[in-house]
């Protein structure tokens, strides 16, 4: 009798333990849902207030700021003749007007949306000096070089600044001597240099501090993805200079980060411009990743060679430093010009690689997450993830480095289920680390749901049309849904038996065991199909996402191992209450290299464009090392090849005064030679543009067709002139 009670007691205690675990999981989940709920509520409130519910732009107060202002003509002239920008993109003009009116402004605009112009143009229009805080030296150098090339007196005050230049800058701040319009600093300057702050104060006291701009402002918030402690101290600027307008800019900020920023920077009454996270020019795709490493590289190399044979720039992101080196080497063996970039390299070696890539002397950078915020190259045509990112946020950021110039570009993630435990063992200790990872895994596992929709959902935005710009929307995949309840039960049973014997298993070991034990477990008598190894892995991941299984982690002397164990919902699966289904690609779509060709983005370039591209590279290397895109943007090249100006006055009409005066004679000579040689037969577009086209970016995206549909050309959706 006593032993019966003892046994029952043990069972009850075991079950209580299990209930405790379930409660913990549910509480965790509840916390996440609460967070999401409050963000969504806040978003709804905000929309109600602004009455902008039907609009794609989640923008407040736009109406007032798109009116006419006294500086309109001067702003237009500066935009075109100095920056060489033919028309404003969405929200730019409104933001500039708000800043010019002396208001504090918070700008959330997707990567490549054109945030820099929003503070650089007012900095030129307003009297005095504008201070720009930016997180990275490389970003600052890039910006300052670009501005100097346009003849704008921009300087930086960083650890690399010479004593002479420092003196000049301090004189300009203190006494208003010399020519200084924009001063770039890192946040450390504000928090650590008393000398600098006292000079800035003098500048302010003389009424010459025109504007404070805080770029990559998400670095202020611990909730953001790139928190920088020195950014936290930037609130001092508004306290010390309360009447100087502050503009804070970032590409991504959830509602929580936005409120955090406003509080930290003391800009509670700012005008907020929030643009959609949508990047209509980016094509998102998940590619099944072979378990054979060499095969993956072979596929990537073949893809780059066939799709980007004109040396168009790209990035390949890898999981580890070792993998970076390996992938770069193997890509080189396949004839791709590729170099690796990671945090273990010394700064000079890293900078050298970055520079060669920025100058288009190197086609591909193979990087870890260390290759991050400083990337300012507008014409990156593809971003490939050789391995899974750790969250949707990280993936959005990294893939978003493609197509900053607004032209069609591709973001491809190579996914195999066995990459999940590699990532999970790195992120499990981070706050919501596993939750975030599982979100991106869901994105990868899905074979039908629009990839873009997953991004909107993640950032709490209403859905917008994908226009066939993701693999799931573009291709009619040949999919079959199999009932795999038998397999799921077999997995659960196996794990339960192992746990009873206090054994642990990794996902790969589990799948191997399953393959060999399948007969014993009676799966073969089940009507379920015979699943391949990769499909079993896919099922294990699906069961993880559905909480039937869970991951546990254990440290060894060399690594952290991820083990698969029973999750809170294993009993339901064992009871077979809910059938388990698995989507499997059956048709040719598995190997989409074929369809890839059918659905190629329209990026044919003419002979003249190629010549102009070569010329901009020559000019850039002889003109103080500025980047080719700072000489002429890709849009400039396409406009020049359409209009073919052969005199400086015609050139001014196309690329603005400063660029025409600086580079016009060389460009005109090239075009004249080209026209005289009669090389116009291969032009993709010989038609005269109409006036509406004339000075707009006029970017085109080929809408990806569903299988068997004709190509449809659409304009680059909402980006311009709306
Ligand atoms: N109105 C415009 N028309 C055409 N090109 C533009 C316009 N505004 C900006 N650009 C170009 O778009 C590219 C990206 O601009 P910018 O660097 O300002 O992006 P960003 O929003 O700061 O992106 P990130 O978040 O990546 O820093 C640059 O090459 C810039 O010259
Ligand atoms: Mg920027």
TrEMBL record:
Q: Biological process GO terms, please?
A: DNA replication; double-strand break repair via homologous recombination
Question: Which residue intervals make up region (Disordered)?
Answer: 678-722
Q: Where is it chiefly localized?
A: nucleus
- Protein family per UniProt: Belongs to the helicase family. RecQ subfamily.
Q: Which residues are in the Helicase C-terminal domain?
A: 299-445
The EC number(s) this enzyme carries: 5.6.2.4
Give cofactor(s), names only: Mg(2+)
The record's section on PROSITE patterns has: HELICASE_ATP_BIND_1, HELICASE_CTER, HRDC
Subcellular location per the Swiss-Prot or TrEMBL entry: Nucleus
For this UniProt record, the keywords arranged alphabetically read as follows: ATP-binding, DNA-binding, Helicase, Hydrolase, Isomerase, Metal-binding, Nucleotide-binding, Nucleus
Q: Where is the composition biased (Polar residues)?
A: 678-688
Quote the InterPro entries the UniProt record gives: DEAD/DEAH_box_helicase_dom (IPR011545), DNA_helicase_ATP-dep_RecQ (IPR004589), Helicase_ATP-bd (IPR014001), Helicase_C-like (IPR001650), HRDC-like_sf (IPR010997), HRDC_dom (IPR002121), HRDC_dom_sf (IPR044876), P-loop_NTPase (IPR027417)
Question: How is this protein named in the record?
Answer: ATP-dependent DNA helicase
Q: Cite the Gene3D superfamilies for this sequence.
A: HRDC domain, P-loop containing nucleotide triphosphate hydrolases, Winged helix-like DNA-binding domain superfamily/Winged helix DNA-binding domain
Q: Which gene encodes it?
A: MED34
């Amino acid at each position: 009798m006593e032993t019966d009670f003892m046994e029952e007691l043990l069972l009850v205690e075991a079950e209580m333990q299990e209930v405790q675990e379930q409660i913990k999981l549910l509480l965790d989940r509840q916390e996440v849902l609460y967070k999401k709920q409050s963000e969504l509520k806040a978003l709804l409130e905000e929309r109600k207030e602004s009455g902008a519910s039907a609009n794609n732009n989640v923008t407040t107060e736009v109406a007032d700021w798109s009116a006419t202002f006294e500086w309109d003509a001067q702003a237009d002239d500066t935009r075109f003749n100095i920056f060489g920008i033919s028309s404003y993109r969405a929200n730019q003009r409104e933001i500039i007007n708000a800043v010019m009116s002396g208001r504090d402004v918070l700008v959330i605009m997707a990567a490549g949306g054109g945030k820099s112009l929003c503070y650089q143009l007012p900095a030129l229009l307003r009297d005095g000096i504008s201070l720009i805080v930016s997180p990275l030296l490389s970003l600052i150098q890039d910006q300052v070089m670009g501005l100097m090339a346009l003849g704008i007196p921009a300087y930086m005050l960083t650890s690399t600044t010479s004593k002479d230049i420092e003196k000049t800058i301090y004189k300009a701040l203190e006494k208003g001597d010399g020519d200084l319009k924009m001063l770039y600093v890192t946040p450390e300057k504000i928090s650590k240099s008393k000398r600098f702050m006292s000079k800035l104060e003098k500048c302010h006291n003389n009424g010459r501090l025109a504007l404070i701009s805080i770029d990559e402002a998400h670095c202020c918030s611990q909730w953001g993805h790139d928190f920088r402690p020195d950014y936290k101290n930037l609130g001092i600027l508004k306290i010390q200079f309360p009447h100087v307008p502050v503009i804070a800019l970032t590409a991504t900020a959830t509602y929580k980060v936005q409120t955090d920023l406003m509080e930290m920077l003391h800009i509670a009454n700012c005008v907020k411009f929030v643009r959609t996270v949508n990047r209509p020019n980016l094509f998102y795709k998940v590619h099944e990743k072979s378990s054979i490493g060499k095969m993956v590289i072979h596929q990537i190399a073949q893809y780059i060679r066939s799709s980007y044979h004109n040396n168009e720039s790209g990035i390949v992101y890898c999981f580890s430093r070792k993998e970076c080196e390996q992938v770069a080497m193997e890509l080189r063996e396949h004839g791709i010009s590729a170099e690796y970039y990671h945090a273990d390299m010394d700064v000079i070696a890293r900078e050298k690689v970055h520079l060669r890539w920025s100058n288009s002397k190197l086609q591909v950078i193979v990087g870890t997450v260390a290759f991050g915020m400083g990337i300012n190259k507008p014409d990156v045509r593809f971003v490939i993830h050789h391995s899974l990112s750790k969250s949707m946020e990280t993936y959005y950021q990294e893939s978003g480095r493609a197509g900053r110039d607004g032209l069609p570009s591709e973001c491809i993630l190579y996914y195999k289920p066995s990459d999940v435990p590699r990532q999970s063992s790195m992120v499990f200790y981070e706050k919501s680390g596993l939750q975030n990872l599982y979100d991106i895994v869901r994105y990868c596992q899905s074979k039908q749901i629009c990839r873009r929709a997953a991004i909107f959902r993640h950032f709490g935005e209403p859905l917008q049309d994908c226009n066939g710009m993701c693999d799931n929307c573009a291709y009619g995949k040949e999919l079959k849904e199999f009932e795999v309840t038998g397999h799921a039960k077999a997995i659960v049973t196996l794990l339960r038996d192992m746990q009873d014997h206090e054994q642990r298993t990794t996902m790969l070991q589990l799948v191997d065991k399953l393959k060999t034990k399948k007969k014993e477990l009676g799966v073969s008598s089940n009507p379920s199909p015979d699943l391949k190894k990769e499909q079993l892995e896919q099922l294990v991941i699906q069961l993880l996402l559905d909480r039937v299984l869970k991951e546990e982690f254990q440290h060894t002397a060399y690594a952290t191992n991820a083990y698969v164990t029973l999750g809170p919902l294993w009993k339901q699966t064992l009871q077979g209450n809910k059938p388990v289904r698995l989507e499997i690609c059956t048709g040719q779509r598995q190997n989409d290299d074929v369809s890839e060709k059918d659905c190629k983005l329209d990026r044919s370039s003419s002979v003249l464009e190629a010549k102009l591209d070569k010329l901009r590279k020559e000019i850039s290397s002889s003109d103080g090392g500025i980047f080719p895109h700072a000489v002429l943007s890709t849009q400039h090249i396409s406009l020049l090849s359409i209009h073919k100006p052969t005199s400086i006055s015609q050139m001014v009409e196309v690329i603005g005064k400063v660029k025409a005066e600086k580079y016009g004679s060389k460009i005109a000579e090239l075009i004249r030679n080209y026209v005289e040689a009669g090389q116009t037969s291969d032009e993709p577009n010989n038609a005269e543009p109409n006036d509406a086209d004339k000075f707009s970016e006029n970017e085109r995206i080929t809408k990806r067709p569903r299988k068997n549909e004709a190509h449809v050309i659409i304009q680059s959706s909402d980006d311009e002139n709306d």
